[in-house]
Every structure is written in structure tokens, then in C-alpha cells.
Amino acid sequence: MSARSNKPHEIVERALALSRADGCLVIADETSTANLRWAGNALTTNGVTRGRSLTVIATVDGQQGTACGVVSRSAVTADELEPLVRAAEDAARGAGPAEDARPLVTGVAADPGFTDAPAETSSAVFADFAPALGDAFARARAGGRELYGFANHEMVSTYLGTSTGLRLRHDQPTGTLELNAKSPDRTRSAWAGRSTQDFKDVDPAALDAELAVRLGWAKRRVELHAGRYETLLPPTAVADLLIYQLWSASGRDAAEGRTVFSRPGGGTRIGERLSELPLTLRSDPDEPGLECAPFVIAHSSNGDRSVFDNGLAAPATDWIERGTLRNLTTTRHSAALTGLPVTPAADNLILDGGDRSLDQMVADTEHGLLLTCLWYIREVDPATLLLTGLTRDGVYLVEGGEVTGQVNNFRFNESPVDLLRRTTEAGRTEKTLPREWGDWFTRAAMPPLRVPDFNMSSVSQGV
To answer: Are strands 167-182 and 317-321 parallel, antiparallel or unpaired?
Structure first.
């Protein structure tokens, strides 16, 4: 009999019962996915998958402190469950004291749904989307466009149990859509992406119409030199930059003088004004349409996450409040080291902007660039959070309030922190799909931003 034939909560309970360690945490992740792929205005593949992974975290108290062992495996059978628990215990006994050791979380009410069956997705999630996509294929074909792309929906039910009595469960739906439109000769390409919980709020016809306009813009080609240009960054590009900023916002690293959030002379920049605009960057597990786990789920420890914090509440947090830096990410351990409050990172990110659409911002642009998305983003300098990357799938020239053509792609060099300082306008916040980080972080809502001097450092030959 496989472990998967048992209910996830039963696997968690059995693993906890098998434990001989001083402390034990067990995380069972039940995952199901459904996907569609298409090319040249026709569906090519579709599929549904199921899987389970199990993480056992054993803690052993010693004279020098508490050691920790973590072992994760997929498709664990009933016969393999006890060896998995023992492997975690052996890893703990063979390890030195864990720097981030803290007492396991207690005092959290058990989730009444902990013993319920896991949530699952299936091809039914595309019941309305697939026919609408077929209609979009027909319109694209008639308009001389070819559509390529994929839609993926994943449901992860996470069951967390600990030897201190925690019994928590979270169901996380994640849907992504990426759509490329190409001219028949493949010289023009346009991209659009969407993040969704259930595909009920995704309109393939609207996306195809948007891409048709962009392909039309690209019929006129203008070559530009590298330089600084007034640039309109769409929500997807803003998301990619600010997600990287969040990943770089470790309170401990800042306090130790290693990041852009370190204050010269010591300490952090918390309390410093980062933008003259009243921008608020925040995470909130209860944000409508972007809901995520309201507690820490940590399969391993790293700079801003600790396995000892599993089950700890992850409340709504303002990272930047009306332009001023308010919080950096911390664990209980790093908070104690730095004197900062405990602020776990949540799995969504929202930048509150203004009330104007991107189209209205274009209409107010005398001469500038409109980006589609960013790609291949890499860090150059952690002290300033200088990033480099490429533009992709359309950079458009705006003249006199209208898009007049497509220009060549560029390599850029920019720091998201410095961009917030220089931004002169933020438009209307909307849900968006990050292009670069969409495989790891999908729950984002961002406004378009106007940057008067975005640094296009060199010309790129990419499409």
C-alpha cells in the first residue's frame, strides 16, 4: 500500500507518532495540476498530474543547543515512512547546533479542515476557458496572427503537523496564462500574461485583441541608441523588479551592512523615505484574488525563513508605507539578533498606485518608451541592488501621446530601490503575472510606473 492511498493528515499523524526526536514537524504537500499548450493557433497537448511530497523535520536538543535535520521525499510508500523519519533524526544528530533554533510554535488553534481530503484541480478548470481560446484561434487566423502559449493550473493542499500540537492546513490555487502572438513571418512578436485562481477571470479574446494592437504597432521599426529614456513600465515589469527587491529585503543582511537596505555607519534604513510618491508596498495573505498561506510554511531554512517558525502567523505587512521603508523580512531568530520586529514574508506582493490607466499615461507622454516585459534579470551589485536584464517582446516608441512604432530591444541597468525614488507617476494597480519570476512568484498586483530616465545601457538583438 502506498502512502498516497492514505489521507494526507493520516500520513502526518503517523510520521509524528513514529518520531523519537525531541521535536518533530511534518509537512505533507498534495499537488495536482492541469495544463493546456498550443502553437500555431491549435492545441498541442494537455494533461493532468497528481503527486505528494513529504518533509520531516526532526530537532534534537543537546548540551550545545538544538540541532535540526530535514529530509524531503516524494511518493513515499508506507514501508518508507519510518526510514524517512529516522533519516531526519539521524541528520539532526549528525548536525551541529542550528543557528536559527527557536522553540517550536505552540498555541495555534487546529484547523477544522485538517482531516478533510485535499483540494484538487482537473481539466474542468478550463471548461469555459478552452472554448473561448478556440474562438481566439479563429480570430487570430483570420487576422493573420499565430498564437502560442500555455495555461497551467495547480492546486497544493499543505498539511502541517508538529509535536507541539499544531495541525494546520492551507489550499493554494495557482493559475498562469502566457500568450504569444506572432506574425506569420515571425519577425514580430507580442506577449501577454495573466495570473488567476480559477481561469474564470481570463478572457482570451481580450488578450488576443491586445496582442493584435501590439503587432500592428510593430509594423513600423525604429532603431534607437542606448541611453536614458522616459519609460512607462507596465505592471508585469514592475512586479519582476519589486519581487526581487522583496527577496533582497532580509533584515539580518541589512543590519550586517550587506544590502541596499543597510544604513551607512550601521543599522538599517527602516524609517527612511524611499519615494516622494505616497507608494505603499505590502503583503497581505487575505488580499482578494491573491490569497496565500496566513502562516509560515518552511521546508528548509535560509536567510529569511526558518523551519523552526513553521506555523507562525504571517500577518499583513507594509514593507514601504506611503514612500517610507517600514519593515524588512525577519525570522524569530534574525529579529532577536537585529532588534527588528518579527515579519515573515508572505507569498504575495502589492504596490498601491493611483487611479489612471496605462493608456492614459501613454496619452500624456510626449516622447518616451513603452515596455512589454523584462527578461533574464540578474543582480550586479547587492549594495545598491543594481539589476541588469533585457527587454522582450516589444519596446514601443511613444510620440505625441501615441504609440508610433516598435524600437529595438535593450539591456538595462537599474536598481528597483532607486527607481522608486525617481518614479514620477504610478497608475492604477492591477493583478499581473511576472514574466521573469512567474515560475516562483505569481501573486502580485502592481501599477504601471513612469520613470523619467530609465537606463537602457546597451542595445540588444533579442526579440
So the answer is: unpaired
Question: Helix (H, G, I), strand (E, B), or coil: what is residue 165?
Answer: coil
What is the DSSP secondary-structure string of 252-311?
A: HHHHTT-STTBPTTSSB-TT-B--SS--EEEE-TT-TT----SB---SS-BTTB-GGGTT
Phi, psi of 270 (to 5 degrees): -55, 130
Nearest Cα to Cα of residue 246 among 306, 301, 318, 193: 318
CB 456 within 8 A of CB 227: yes
Confidence of residue 174 (pLDDT cuts 50, 70, 90): very high
Write the pLDDT tens digit of every residue in 6-25: 899 999 999 999 999 999 99
Structure confidence by residue, pLDDT tens digits, 63-77: 889 999 999 999 888
* pTM > 0.90: yes
- Shortest CA distance to 400 belongs to which of 452, 353, 363, 347? 363
Of the candidates 108, 153, 22, the residue with the CA atom closest to the CA atom of residue 295: 108
Strand partners, 281: 320, 351
Distance CA 425, CA 345 (A): 27
Helix (H) or strand (E) holding 374: strand 367-381
Of 202, 207, 215, 217, the C-alpha closest to 289 is 202
Contact indicator for 181, 147 with CB cutoff of 8 Å:
yes
Q: Cell 493520516 maps to which residue?
A: 10
The answer on pLDDT for 3 being more than 60 is no
Q: Which residues pair with 398 in a beta bridge?
A: 368, 403
